[in-house]
Design a protein that fits this description.
Elements: E1 5-7, H1 11-18, H2 22-29, E2 30-32, E3 38-41, H3 63-67, H4 80-89, H5 91-103
Antiparallel strand pairs: 1-3, 2-3
C-alpha cells in the first residue's frame, strides 16, 4: 500500500506550515527511510491524508504526492497489483478505473 514520503529538505518547511518545530514534526509524523535520505509517514497510506481526501500539508505537500496516482506516468501503472493498491486509496484513480470498466463492458461474475 502507498505510504507518504517526505524528502529531508521539505521537513523544515512542512513543520513551519503546521506551526510546529522540525523535531516535533519528525517525532509525531515520520520515520527515517532505509537509506537515511528522507522520511516515510508512520502510518499508511499517509498521516497527512484527511477524511475529505485533502492533505494537511496543503500546498507544501511533496512532489510525489502531487503526482500521485501517476496517471500521467503509464510506466508506473504496468502492474495490476499497483493499480489495485492505488484505487483502494485514491478517489481519482478509483473513478478512472470505474469509467474504464464501463467503457470496456467489464462484467463481474
Amino acid at each position: 500500500m502507498y505510504q507518504g514520503s517526505i524528502p529531508e529538505e521539505d521537513v523544515e518547511r512542512d513543520a513551519e506550515y503546521l506551526g510546529i518545530s522540525p523535531e516535533q514534526f519528525i517525532d509525531i509524523f515520520l520515520e527515517k527511510d532505509e537509506y537515511g535520505t528522507g522520511y516515510f509517514t508512520k502510518h499508511k497510506p499517509c498521516d497527512f491524508l484527511q477524511e475529505d481526501g485533502t492533505c494537511k500539508l496543503g500546498s507544501c505537500k511533496p512532489d510525489s504526492c502531487k503526482k500521485y496516482p501517476y496517471t500521467d506516468q503509464p510506466e508506473r501503472l504496468w502492474s495490476l497489483l499497483s493499480v489495485l493498491e492505488t484505487i483502494e486509496i485514491c478517489p481519482v484513480a478509483f473513478e478512472i478505473f470505474e469509467r474504464l470498466k464501463k467503457e470496456y463492458g467489464f462484467r463481474g461474475r
